[in-house]
Design brief:
Elements lengths: L2 E6 L2 E5 L5 E9 L2 E9 L5 H16 L4 H14 L3 H11 L6 H18 L9 H11 L3 H20 L13 H5 L13 H8 L5 H13 L3 H5 L6 E2 L4 E4 L8 E4 L4 H12 L11 H7 L9 H13 L10 H12 L4 H7 L6 H6 L5 H18 L5
Antiparallel strand pairs: 1-2, 2-3, 3-4, 5-6, 6-7
Helix pairs in contact: 3-4, 4-6, 9-11, 9-14, 9-17, 14-15, 15-17
Length: about 375
């Protein structure tokens, strides 16, 4: 049972229901009853508690308020927290629970912020400091935007912890600091003639096959470079992509010629568990053995091809292969909804919320039509 026993002069011994014993000094300030927690028993003995209580009563008699003074001292100690420690706390309590892509993008930008601001106390940071970080980083507009978002999130965390009253990022406009956002690059659809040039391009065979698979399956490039053979069933002709925090999982039908391209990759990859294993010994060592290719390998191969061989087609990225696949499927008579489902996009509006049908057979038919078109362009069929 909880209890409270007075020792006189406001000093009180309390015992909570959980069995925690505490010394409390009760006094009046400004006509109101107030309490100051002195400490726990037996960490603080009766003699020590009486000594501390006498000292605090002297402050009360002099017009002071010990409980308020203690709260201010605690708040001040929090304000002395460095930005480096604040970022560490944010990483542990907030960032660790966000999507992997956010952890990566915020993580690298928090490294930049910590390098510039880490030694400052949280209360010292001003909007001018934030602007200086943005100006001195010399990143692209998009990366500067992510940097500002990451810093803003960290100081929002500080406001939530009552370390500061106002976020120093409030009111900072990125356009005013680094200029207006450049025009967003539009996704393109490679024409049939351009696809023929790509199929005849001077690529390493593994990279050539990866480009064909991105076209034939319309998956995201990260889904391909993370793919493992255990997720591909050649007998059932299906590739299972697991769900992530950001995206639904899906089963991709293996149509012709996608299945043939995969079988060729399997032969090239040897005993690796990955569909696209790394070819760099240094990466294998860093990853502790078997590993997939770097996420930038396919894009890098495409860019190298343009630089070294100068093909007379429009410059494209791996992601443009998805928009190419979607646009061609529409031109080949595939409905808009099925082409969107082939890209693992949700249907819009209420239908997208309640429609849980996977459209596997419809997607298989669409990808079969698209695969036959690709095979013809690649010279596999006449």
């Amino acid at each position: 049972m909880p209890l409270a026993r007075s020792d006189g002069g406001g000093l009180t011994f309390t015992l909570s229901r959980a069995g925690t014993a505490t010394w409390i000094l009760r006094y009046r300030y400004g006509g109101r009853q107030k309490e100051l927690t002195i400490g726990s028993y037996p960490d603080i003995s009766l003699a020590q508690a009486r000594k501390i209580a006498r000292e605090e009563r002297v402050k009360v008699d002099g017009g002071g308020d010990p409980a308020s003074d203690k709260r201010r001292a605690i708040a001040q100690s929090y304000q002395d927290l460095t930005v480096r420690n604040l970022i560490a706390d944010y990483r542990d309590k907030v960032l660790s629970g966000l999507a992997a892509s956010t952890q990566n993008s915020y993580g690298r930008n928090l490294d930049r912020a910590e390098f510039k601001l880490g030694s400052l106390t949280v209360s010292q940071v001003t909007p001018l400091d934030i602007v200086a970080v943005l100006e001195e980083t010399h990143s692209t507009w998009s990366e500067s935007y992510t940097l500002l978002c990451a810093i803003k999130a960290v100081f929002r965390h500080a406001v939530g912890k009552r370390l500061i009253a106002v976020n120093p990022c409030a009111g900072i406009e990125l356009n005013a600091v680094v200029g207006r956002r450049p025009p967003i690059r539009q996704r393109l659809m490679l024409s049939n003639d351009e696809l023929c040039v790509v199929f005849k391009g001077s690529f390493r065979r593994e990279n050539a096959l990866a480009i064909r698979l991105l076209l034939g399956t319309a998956v995201r490039s990260e889904e391909l470079y993370n793919a493992r053979w255990e997720s591909i069933d050649f007998e059932q002709e299906v590739w299972t992509i697991d769900a992530t925090k950001m995206r639904r999982g899906m089963q991709v039908p293996l149509t012709y010629p996608v299945k043939e391209w995969l079988l060729e990759l399997k032969e090239l990859g040897g005993s690796s568990a990955y569909v696209l294993p790394t070819r760099a010994e240094s990466r294998r060592r860093r990853q502790g053995g078997d590993a997939q290719i770097n996420r930038n390998t396919i894009g890098g191969a495409i860019e190298y091809w343009f630089v070294e061989h100068g093909p007379k087609i429009r410059r494209f990225t791996p992601h443009d292969l998805r928009s190419t696949a979607k646009s061609h499927m529409r031109a080949l008579g595939v409905s808009r909804d099925i082409s969107e489902m082939c890209l693992n996009h949700r249907l819009p509006g209420v239908e997208g919320i309640y429609d849980i049908h996977t459209y596997f057979e419809e997607r298989k038919q669409a990808l079969t039509i698209w695969g036959a078109h690709l095979a013809k362009l690649d010279g596999l069929i006449s």
